[in-house]
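Reminder to self: tokens first, then the designed residues, so the page reads top to bottom the way the pipeline ran.
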């Protein structure tokens, strides 16, 4: 739901620095084919916009204001909440997971008020789509935080992720692919990036496996026995490969794909490649690596024990148990859609929400024609 709200600069919790222009080095375009057609433009607003993405694993907030270069980040927040923990076994969001999510959303609500946000949209994805108590959870979130969550479809999730990240696609001819490895699902978007009016979606696919759902479906990922871990990795990779097979069969053959990955998995692989002691978004967003390099890193991480993965500064104990599943999903994507290079994006659904809201309010311009607040 798009919601108008009456509502010391600090460093962002998820790598965004307040005051940083989004799209400064790669201006964000807003191709009409990627934008919703069913919402009438509202009168132009001046002020801060906010996007909340409540996923299966993370709760993420981005607050920004329009600028000549796209938008400037005002504040950001990210917290691991594991909303989908146990969902595969029970079909329901657990009370512990709900409490973690509401705690994080309460922080978001406070930031909306303090930053005087004038327009916000908050969305929930795969965990709430699957959960029998998803609607009840949304109602409780509104009662306790004032945030009205929209449970969006997989197609809308894919479109928004593409809208928020497509400007990082490498220049070239032929089709392009954007993938987003989430906690509960993985979205794949095939784009025609050669259209004179900007990229538009040719096809999309939502695979029912993300890092949380796949981790919980396979035993042995945290085993101390290397052979057991190897077998678990193989099974996860095969499961994801099966989930991609129908989409791969639909794609035209012969053309080399330009590939863009937006997810915690690909940013983690890139961070390990760079040997970062702590996450640095400016070093990661837009980084280009060979897929062979990424495959080697994925295989190395998958072969590590849980404690070894947890000891890496850019992974830590909170995410160590999910890394193997992310690596297996990436490897399945690499095998299904061969390419030589991958560009890494630390942007996606939240940025897509912001672009969409600003465009609908007629404060979004690109190619230097932006409008300052």
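Designed residues (373 positions):
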């Amino acid at each position: 739901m798009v919601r108008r709200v009456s509502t010391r600069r600090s460093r962002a919790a998820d790598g965004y620095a307040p005051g940083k222009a989004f799209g400064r080095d790669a201006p964000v375009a807003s191709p009409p084919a990627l934008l919703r057609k069913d919402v009438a433009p509202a009168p132009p607003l001046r002020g801060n916009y906010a996007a909340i993405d409540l996923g299966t694993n993370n709760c993420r907030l981005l607050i920004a204001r329009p600028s000549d270069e796209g938008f400037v980040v005002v504040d950001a927040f990210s917290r691991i909440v594991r909303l989908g923990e146990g969902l595969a076994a029970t079909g329901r969001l657990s009370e512990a997971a709900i409490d973690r999510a509401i705690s994080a959303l309460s922080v978001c609500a406070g930031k909306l008020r303090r930053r005087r946000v004038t327009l916000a949209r908050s969305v929930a994805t795969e965990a709430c789509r699957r959960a029998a108590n998803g609607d009840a959870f949304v109602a409780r979130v509104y009662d306790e935080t004032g945030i009205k969550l929209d449970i969006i479809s997989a197609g809308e999730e894919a479109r928004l992720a593409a809208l928020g990240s497509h400007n990082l696609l490498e220049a070239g001819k032929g089709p392009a692919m954007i993938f987003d490895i989430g906690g509960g699902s993985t979205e794949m978007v095939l784009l025609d990036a050669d259209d004179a009016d900007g990229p538009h979606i040719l096809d999309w696919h939502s695979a029912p496996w993300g890092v949380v759902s796949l981790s919980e479906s396979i035993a042995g990922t945290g085993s101390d026995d290397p052979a057991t871990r190897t077998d678990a990795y193989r099974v996860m990779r095969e499961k994801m490969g099966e989930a991609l097979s129908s989409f791969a069969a639909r794609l035209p053959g012969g053309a080399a794909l330009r590939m863009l990955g937006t997810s915690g998995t690909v940013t983690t692989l890139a961070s390990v490649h760079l040997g970062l002691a702590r996450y640095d978004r400016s070093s990661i967003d837009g980084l280009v690596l060979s897929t062979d390099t990424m495959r080697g890193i994925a295989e190395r991480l998958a072969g590590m024990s849980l404690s070894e993965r947890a000891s890496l500064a850019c992974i830590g104990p909170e995410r160590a148990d999910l890394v193997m599943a992310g690596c297996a999903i990436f490897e399945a994507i690499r095998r299904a859609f061969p390419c030589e290079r991958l560009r890494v994006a630390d942007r996606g659904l939240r940025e897509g929400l912001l672009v969409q809201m600003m465009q609908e309010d007629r404060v979004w311009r690109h190619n230097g024609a932006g409008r300052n607040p």
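The first strand starts at residue 2 and ends at 4.
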